[in-house]
Write a structure and sequence with these properties.
Number of strands: 32
Strand content: 35-45%
Largest sheet: 5 strands, antiparallel
Radius of gyration: 22 Å
Helix content: under 10%
Structural class: mainly beta
């Protein structure tokens, strides 16, 4: 399933970080953002050596050249100031909606249709779609349609019903979604259903009723989906047939909040199998139980246990598994807890061949690149792209400046950049200099197709 970026904030503390391969330099609290964009993205370290890498020796570029085009035109749909915008490579940015109140957006694989959630009236969200040229805005799921899915007691009726998760079936204009109950005040109640609406014909289908479905993960070919709940993973054909219930069951993970944890399985590129990492049920238990690694065949037979890894408390392993299912990456706390030191580990998918890649304060494994040989990691003072068995490239020496990194392919990436309090949507070539500015302003999330 195509990944979509969402927004989160990272606390900024500028200190020297001691790494397994050396020492990152002290970060100045008064960085010039323009210089950071042009210079820090160009700082490439070619090997993890015993000596300390000197990030300060990278010469600034004389100019920021235009990046080479992607193999296919890139389209990025994003929410800016409550409306949907679309940036097209070679064309630029175009505003698609003007009604406001938009919270989330997804663009179809072919880049022709953007679907979005709009809540113009509190607790009355709806899903709409619009063509990439700005024409044909239509309601896919109205607020009345959402309310009609409630079948409980009128005395317990929620303030509204909305979207918990939505995404396009690969290679189609069929939008799948799960619903949640909306209340005035805290609380998150998910239906674990599954519904579909065709953005071209407006046909609506209930695939699984509440309690029978789950958060969905499409196979790359769009023919299969994994249905995830807080205690199980099931498989089904995309239309809901051939249900293979509970191929993996596990204890619900305590989050010590209203949020229920849903694991994040990863499909093989040929849609033949999945892998998933399941964290321990209680992340506060001392000593902490390990995270289990599982292999899931698609024939309906039970999942196969692969091995264990030992991660940090509350470090959900959503990004541990590489896209080709061959590796895992994760952080392990070491030393005195108050020092917050962690090692970044790389291992095979069965937990064998475990090695320490790097260590440092607040080290965190962010996720794999599509090539499964490189990955993003953070240590206090920087965001970097590491290579299995090799060195790393520094994206930013201030992790607060860069967020929502999404890889279009193994060389191009999109991200949000904090330019003196204003968020800029940009994309860049890994190891290249400069970056392309897509748009700037109150940008709250984005999705892409290419």
């Amino acid at each position: 399933m195509k990944k979509t970026s969402h927004i989160w904030f990272v606390a900024v503390l500028f200190i020297v970080v001691t790494l397994a391969c050396g020492t990152l330099p002290t970060v100045s609290p008064t960085l010039d953002v323009k210089d950071v964009v042009a210079t820090q993205l160009a700082a490439t370290l070619t090997a993890l050596a015993p000596s300390a890498p000197d990030l300060a020796t990278a010469a600034p570029p004389e100019a920021a050249p235009t990046l080479p085009p992607l193999p296919q035109p890139l389209r990025v749909a994003y929410v800016k100031s409550g409306n949907v915008w679309l940036w097209t490579e070679g064309v630029g940015a175009m505003q698609l909606t003007a009604s406001g109140g938009i919270q989330d957006v997804r663009i179809s694989d072919d880049g022709q249709v953007a679907a979005y959630v709009r809540e113009s009236i509190p607790f009355r969200p709806e899903i709409l779609a619009i063509n990439s040229d700005g024409s044909g805005e239509r309601i896919l799921v109205s607020s009345a349609d959402f309310l009609a899915t409630y079948s409980g007691s009128p005395s317990d009726a929620p303030s509204g019903i909305g979207v918990f998760h939505m995404g396009w079936r690969p290679g189609s204009h069929m939008l799948y979604y799960n619903t949640r109950l909306l209340y005035e005040g805290p609380g998150l109640v998910v239906h674990d259903d599954l519904r579909m609406v065709n953005a071209d014909t407006l046909e609506k289908v209930t695939i699984f009723n509440p309690g029978e479905g789950g958060v969905f993960y499409f196979s790359p070919n769009g023919a299969q989906l994994a249905l995830v709940t807080p205690t199980s993973i099931s498989l089904a054909d995309a239309e809901g047939s051939n249900l293979r219930r509970n191929v993996l069951t596990f204890a619900s993970v305590i989050t010590y909040s209203e949020y229920l944890y849903y694991p994040n399985p990863v499909w093989a590129a040929d849609s033949s199998a999945l892998r998933v990492a399941i964290p321990p049920a209680d992340p506060m238990l001392v000593p902490l139980n390990p995270t289990g690694l599982w292999y899931i065949p698609i024939d309906g037979s039970p999942a196969v246990f692969s091995g264990n890894i030992q991660t940090n408390s509350f470090a959900w392993p959503d990004t541990a598994i590489s896209p080709d299912l061959s590796r895992v990456g994760y952080a392990v706390p070491v030393g005195v807890p108050t020092d917050n030191l962690r090692e970044l580990h790389l291992a095979n998918a069965d937990a064998t061949g475990d090695t320490v890649y790097i260590s440092g304060e607040s080290a965190e494994f962010i996720g794999w690149l599509p090539n499964s040989t490189q990955f993003v990691f953070v240590v206090r003072g920087g965001t970097h792209v590491g290579s299995v068995g090799g060195g790393y490239t520094t994206l930013s020496t201030d992790p607060f400046l860069m967020r929502a990194i999404t890889w279009v392919d193994s060389t191009h990436f999109l991200y949000l950049w904090n330019n003196s309090g204003t968020w800029e949507l940009r994309y860049n070539l890994l190891g290249g200099v400069g970056s392309t500015l897509l748009d700037t302003g109150q940008i709250w999330g984005y999705d892409y197709s290419n």
